[in-house]
Design a protein that fits this description.
- The chain has 362 residues and is of the alpha+beta class.
- The chain is built from twelve helices and 13 strands.
- It has a single domain, classed as Thrombin, subunit H (Beta Barrel).
- The strands form two sheets. The chain has a six-stranded antiparallel beta barrel. A six-stranded antiparallel beta barrel has the order 2-3-4-7-6-5.
């Protein structure tokens, strides 16, 4: 019996060796144009390394250890029948927060977009962190509103569904910076709409963009993409009463970056009219109409032109939210949102509010 097993293994090994050699020979005798195509595919764009502050840090596992959160997410069914917006701007939102004291008015503005018909919004952590502070008066009387339209008008109130605790841990000390910097690492958050302004009814279906959580191919450099956002240059120049208008621009991907994962975690796009403060959290959409990234930071204008931007990929968001919650991005935006948001608010939110409050007061 052992002899027979060894014989079969030997036959299989010989066969694999032969087919491998045959494949090499076939490539060698291919016409030169086809050989060049094969080489081009294997020698596609390199991944430029970005500094990471999380590689040696233990990821918080509070939600992984929360039986209530795990039960709430485990019973979630992913709805395959989403209805998508034909115009990306219809799914775009502006997240506008004001903090009023006796002597000052502080405003923040950012972009986001609906990724589920039930009213789930994907945006940046550096935009959504102000919703954490909405339950305190540490920056003043707080109000955060989800605005939409052209120009942006108050539409909804929203609550936090998820913000990576790792991002808050690493960036809480930047809350008071007038021009904070960063690489965009884990800079994302999920909100969900809870109420319409004026106590009107909520839409049965929110206009939504599809997202692609597959790994981004390295061959995507120089491909056309669409960037969408609410750039706020005019607001910064003329004051908070300035109308914000949605902007859609076509541009191309210039570079790919990695936080050490050996995957394309970040990409840069060449300059466009979207490339201003306030567009953070806006979607980057491929030619197939799917979101492949969200805007996180300014790019390198000297290399890529004025208004260049960087975006974290939706595949990166999918991989990291899976690490921190145990569930995919698609599952995190589906199901009983109210239940999961309540669990998040009672388990993680107090810890993050404390971190941010401490940095503001010191």
């Amino acid at each position: 019996m052992q002899f027979l097993t060894d014989f079969v293994v030997a036959i299989i090994t010989a066969y694999l060796s032969f087919t491998n050699q045959l494949a090499v020979k076939i490539i060698d005798i291919m016409p030169s144009t086809e050989k060049e195509a094969v080489i081009e595919e294997s020698d596609s764009a390199t991944l430029n390394p970005l500094p990471t502050t999380l590689s040696t840090r233990n990821l918080p596992d509070i939600l992984l250890r929360s039986a209530a959160y795990q039960r709430a997410s485990a019973i979630t069914t992913i709805d395959p029948d989403q209805i998508y917006a034909e115009n990306p701007a219809d799914a775009l939102v502006n997240i506008f927060c004001t903090f009023i004291t006796d002597t000052t008015i502080r405003t923040t503005t950012g972009s986001g977009f609906f990724i589920h018909n039930d009213g789930v919004i994907l945006t940046n952590a550096h935009v959504a962190q102000y919703l954490l502070l909405g339950s305190t008066d540490i920056l003043g009387k707080a109000e955060c509103i989800v605005r939409q339209g052209n120009p942006a008008e108050p539409k909804y109130l929203a609550e936090l569904l998820y913000i990576p605790p790792t991002w808050v841990q690493e960036n809480a000390d930047l809350i008071n910076d007038t021009a904070p910097t960063g690489t965009g690492e884990r800079d994302y958050a999920l909100l969900y709409v809870t109420k319409a302004m004026g106590d009107g009814p909520l839409p049965e279906i929110f206009p939504t963009l599809p997202f692609d959580s597959d790994l981004l191919p390295r061959t995507i450099t120089n491909k056309k993409v669409t960037a969408v956002g609410y750039p706020a240059g005019s607001l910064l120049r003329h004051g908070p009463n300035t109308n914000l208008l949605p902007v859609t621009s076509t541009t191309t991907i210039s570079e790919l970056y990695t936080y050490g994962s050996n995957f394309a975690d970040v990409f840069s796009i060449r300059g466009s009219q979207v490339g201003e403060e306030g567009s953070s959290g806006g979607p980057i959409i491929n030619e197939a109409g799917a979101v492949i990234g969200i805007i996180v930071t300014r790019g390198d204008d000297e290399r890529d032109g004025s208004g260049s931007l960087r975006a974290i990929t939706t595949s990166y968001i999918h991989r990291t939210i899976l690490e921190e919650t145990g569930f995919s991005l698609a599952r995190n935006v589906s199901g009983n949102l109210t239940n999961r948001a309540e669990i998040f608010a009672t388990t993680l939110a107090p810890f993050m509010i404390s971190l941010l409050s401490e940095k503001i007061l010191n």
